[in-house]
Amino acid sequence: MRKLSILFLLLSTALFAQPHNKKAQKVWVDSVYNAMTFEQRVGQLFMVAAYSNKDNAHLKSLEKLVVEQQVGGLIFFQGGPVRQAKMTNSLQKLAKTPLLIGIDGEWGLSMRLDSTPRMPWNMTLGAVQDMALIKKVGISLAEQSNRMGLHFNFGPVVDINTNPKNPIIGVRSYGETRDVVTDRAVAFMEGYQSKNVFATAKHFPGHGDTSTDSHYALPLMDLGKDRLNKVELYPYKKLIDHGLASVMVAHLSLPVIEPDPKLPTSLSYNVVTKLLKEDLGFEGLIFTDALNMKAASNYLKPGEIDLAAFLAGNDVLLFAENVPTALIKFKEAFDANIVTEERLAHSVKKILSFKYKAGLTDYKPVQIGNLILDLNSYQFDDLNAQLYEEAMTLVKNDKHALPIAHLEKEKIAYFKLGDDNGDDFLKQLNQFAEVTAIDTTAENFSLQNLKLYTRVIIGYHKADNPWRKHDFSFDELNWINKIAAQNKTILVSFAKPYALSAVTNFEPIEAVVQAYQNNKFAQEAAAQLIFGTIAAKGKLPVSINSNFTEGTGHKTKVLSRLGFSTPTKEGMDPVRLQKIDQIAQKAIDDRLTPGIQIVVARHGKVVYQKSFGYHTFDKQQAVLNTDVYDLASLTKILGTLPLLMKDYDAGKITMKSKLGTLIPEFDRSDKEDITLQEVLTHQARLQAWVPFYKSTLDEQNKPSKLFYSNHYSEEFPDQVSENLFIKKGYNKLILKAIAESKLLPKKQYKYSDLGFIALKEYLERSSKLSLDQLAESTLYSKLGATTMTYNPLRKRDMSTIPPTEIDNYFRYTTVQGYVHDMTAAMEGGVAGHAGLFANALDVAKMMQMYLQKGSYGEDVFFSERTFNDFNNCWFCKDGNRRGVGFDKPQKAGTAGPTCGCASMTSFGHTGFTGTMTWADPESDLIYVFLSNRTYPDSNDNKLSKANVREDIQEAIYKSIID
């Protein structure tokens, strides 16, 4: 034994430099084999089961098998990555000849190990049409296998699932046709083996057309030779042609090849040697399926079954139940010349060759450090997201029901079926439009209530588990029929495709989406398909009765709406992007603001959406992405400006339109000839700000009863804050005060609210609508900006709105749900310069519309020419950086709103409450930062002094990698 170990070490050192040199490989294999005893050689044939979640007694039994029987490998089952890595290292250290390590992880290590990412089932991949993506799956799983010290991850499954009721294969198969299965199996194998991990095609000769689970009994494959050759064997032929490393033989009854109907294929010489080796010419490694499965173990006892499998032509005996007994049987057979030296050498040398190819001549232990982090790298989530997007299959789409285009015409309900969670689906739906979840347990629930909705989205959610039944219940089918009979209905099935076979009448259902699995990736992808931010590309890998045949899949167009993606896919480094978290959290920790909400989007896709901190410093209520903030001066470019741009585009106004013409109150004033362009570029000589509220306070600096009431009435109709209403028509006094205000002496850049306050009057009079009604009907309802609104308490609960200040100078209350800006409050919460509330996502939608130069979804709000006119820096030569309404980046060496890294074509705005939004056409980038830095006291702007918004913007730009 000592001599063998020394020889092994010497050869390892000498030969590792050329791991695939056939001559060196042969020298190493022959030398190791020749130094082995008979028992050691036979030991190499066994790959025994290992569990990292079992007790020490299990580990001791494995140690004994490795040391005493010198087994050739381990196949790992349930456990955890770190525990398995430690077990691998300890057993490899004990092994005289390094062990081949395998795992049965068809959809990733998570099939067996906790704390690891899960890839889609093969049938989900069967819907994906891009084979380059399937190859990436193989590469990703191989990278994980390498990290875990694994040499085999037993896949791909190449069973062609022609029997929809197959109890054991099902969604483990790529589909029901040989081409669907073969194309994906080849792509997977090529990716897998490119990383020096061995692919194993299974379950030979084909387990797809069976109705029995071979774990419990022997399945019958009652096929003719022509069918077997053209269908079941087809993928094996193609894979062998492409360099397949190994095959796993199933336990089946195949009378057309093996006359003994009780003899499993895994024990059949006719199947393993004649069919696989001779007829198909396969020279790679041959594994049995697990020998403890009843389809095989019912035929022979432990030890006997191992010998029979070897004599049939298999090389590796998987999951042997009693290795010591098997060794005795082999010795007896060898002595009786049943097992020959030539036959033994054939398999053992083949096994040793694979160990050489796996690099085991220079074995290195699995590194435990950062193992969990490495196995859960962002790249796996990126790939998962892309795979599910590509898999989404639009099975039916009457009258182009999907994608949903005109949101302003829709009122949508979500009706959940199934016994699993659908929260991610509902959450993602609500990122696009207001979608109401129907509570069927509510006391007043009735199907009649659904008639209030223009569409009902039915989500069928079943456990994301391939072994669980996904059948609709009678009641669920009844719900579908009744809802579809009265409503435009979209049915989305987050279940095996076969589940839809129970739906007997698809005629009244407007659209059917097959989403395959019920997890976050599938749910988010389905929502994006429904609203058109991804295209439907998938095709059914199997038929759904006679309703929809294999290959069915309608394609859809992509609408120019803000969608969702991953940083990597949009050319950004996710690790660098995490710098945002550090800056934001430090701002919270340093009490610069109680809470923060951030969105980053690139190429029309949100790549970052997070919230930090709390509503207040008492840390009672954490900020959510759905909470809405007072946007302060962002109102100028998100409310007033786009409405003016629409009128400009329609020819109603021009850059030279004069205030005296637009607003009669300015006629015959010293402001009558001020142009719209001058107002919007902040060089109209207007005062920066007038504290209008001060003139409405009494001698105690409290709201005067001449102007305010504590309750609503016709005389005091406009609410300023909680329990405070202002006298009717006071906005006219504000407008009069602006008209009479003193002009600044010099025409130059001076930021001012006054022009925007005045322009509200123009917009309302010309449209005959209030500003909030006008903005909602012409902008926000079409964008799906459901949180963007003035006076948010009319639509949502105060608990979703962080407060902006404890006011002890005007309103004498905590300002929450009412606009912080005093003048906007005096205008009833609806003003041209302030008043809007929204979450960061809806701000990003408006900015995306700007980036798209006036279009969003299927709506065109204004022309590209109009956008270019307003985004132009007309007076940069005069030292005014402003666009028309938009703020623009500062010149080098001067103070300004940005990090100094945004392009000069970029635009945006900041707000007093600690808000900022910025878009950059050159980088195709959007940044939104919302906070309530003014709480509890607005006087000390610590957030601005610390450059938090600018530092985050810089981190965003530094994360761009393309």
What does this entry show, briefly?
This protein has about 950 residues and is α/β, with parallel strands linked by helices. About 35% of the residues lie in helices and about 15% in strands. It is elongated and about 120 Å long.
The termini sit apart by: 57 Å
Poorly predicted parts: 1-19
Q: Estimate what percentage of residues fall within beta strands.
A: 5-15%
Multimer state: single chain
Radius of gyration: 35 Å
Order of adjacent strands in the largest pleated sheet: 9-14-13-12-10-11
Structural class: alpha/beta
> Helix coverage percent of residues?
25-40%
Overall residue-averaged pLDDT value: 95
Overall spatial form: elongated
Largest sheet: 6 strands, mixed
Can you count the helices? Answer: 33
Beta strand count = 30
Provide a descriptive summary of the structure in words:
The protein has 962 residues and is of the alpha/beta class. The protein is 35% helix and 13% strand. The strands form 8 sheets. The chain has a 6-stranded mixed sheet, sandwiched between helices. A 6-stranded mixed sheet has the order 15-17-16-30-29-28, sandwiched between helices. A hairpin with a 2-residue loop joins β16 and β17 (605-613). It is elongated and about 120 Å long. The two termini are 57 Å apart.
Question: Which key phrases capture this entry?
Answer:
alpha/beta; six-stranded mixed β-sheet; 13% strand; elongated; 33 helices; 962 residues; single chain; 30 strands
